[in-house]
Amino acid sequence: MTRRAPVPPSAVDPSGQTWLIHRAWPDRTAGDYLLEVIAPGQPGVRGGVLRAGAFELLPDDDPALPSLRAEARRGELVSYRPHMRAVIRTEACYIKVFLPGGAIVPAERCAQTEILLDPATFAAPRVLRNSPDVIAFSAVPGRTLGELGDDHADLGDEVVDRLWERWQLAWTAQVGSSAGHAALAALPTHSPEVEVTDLRRWVKRWLRHNDIPEAGAQRAALSARADEVTRNLLRTAPDPLVWAHGDLHDKQILADTGNSPLGLLDFDDTAQAEAALDLANLDVHLELHARQHPASPARYVAAHTRILAAAEDLHVSPDRFHAYSDGAWLRLACSPLPKRSAMALAVLEERAARVPPVAGYESGLESSFATAATETGGR
Fold first, then answer.
1. What is the largest CA-CA distance in the chain?
2. CA distances, 12 to each of 45, 55, 59, 142, 336 (Å)
3. Same domain, 179 and 310
4. Over the stretch 244-285, which tens digit does the pLDDT of each residue have?
5. Is 119 buried (19+), middle (13-18) or exposed (0-12) by CB count in 10 A?
6. Three-class SS state of 226
7. Does this model's pTM top 0.90?
8. In this structure, which of 6, 176, 297, 317 has its CB flanked by the most CB atoms within 10 Å?
């Protein structure tokens, strides 16, 4: 049976209200998707669903998240994966709502991270209250590096570069000091084998939801790249295990223009892993944003340079950085959002076509996109 695969950029509900589709996740039935949607000019987010291409706005009450209705009354819903988790922003704190029992492990991860995290390098949210399905966190001051990087009205390139320099110094100090820490052993291990298993699950799910004739070429290309990416992750010897955030990107890091420690958010996926896991994921997400918004390449180049410097400081093997970068692009290629998926797959094809460098740490990690960005206006 032919299924309608693409998730559109927006949808209209029966009342005529247009909703921008911010994020999407495959649902249980192939071709159906759960959505996080935004109404232009209105605060907060809502949940939606695409079933056989038809959009439906979900009710505020989510039966899979029994604590959501009561907690949502306290503030504004700012992040929502229907039937999985939600985040509410209040004047005093942030509240994360999970499936029943789903908050137990994240609360443990927060406690373990508090032991490992040096408060002189990073400030983390404090747990104010928690139950089996709710955690309330203190707010961390500052704006995300993603927001600051997009602020061209009030911040110059030099200011943003200094922020990324602060991040580089803090990150290398934090990760470097974690090696051999007794508390590290309490965290789960995110090995290359775990990464490969996760990626194969992402690819299998994408292929299942895009089993349509018009996606044939993309399916073949994705399958080929997936085989190569997973093979490369297991091909070379892994670097030593260190503390890893597990989902590091520029919206997880907060800063102000003062000298207070940077902030760090969301430790649900913290683990023991190779340092390349976090650094590559951060770098790939910055490159994705730069490719989507190419008008000002200098800030991407500055951040990219700092990430490479951190990788060198932490003795990350160029082969491992490349392998985890390819893994991050493969995840993005499995996005339900067609433009993001197509762009990420094109990047994977571009990376696969390049001749691997034979020597030189920085030349081994430097992306062709960063080189082009430098030539067109980056520093």
1. 61
2. 15, 7, 15, 35, 19
3. yes
4. 999 999 999 999 877 889 999 999 999 999 999 999 999 999
5. exposed
6. helix
7. yes
8. 297
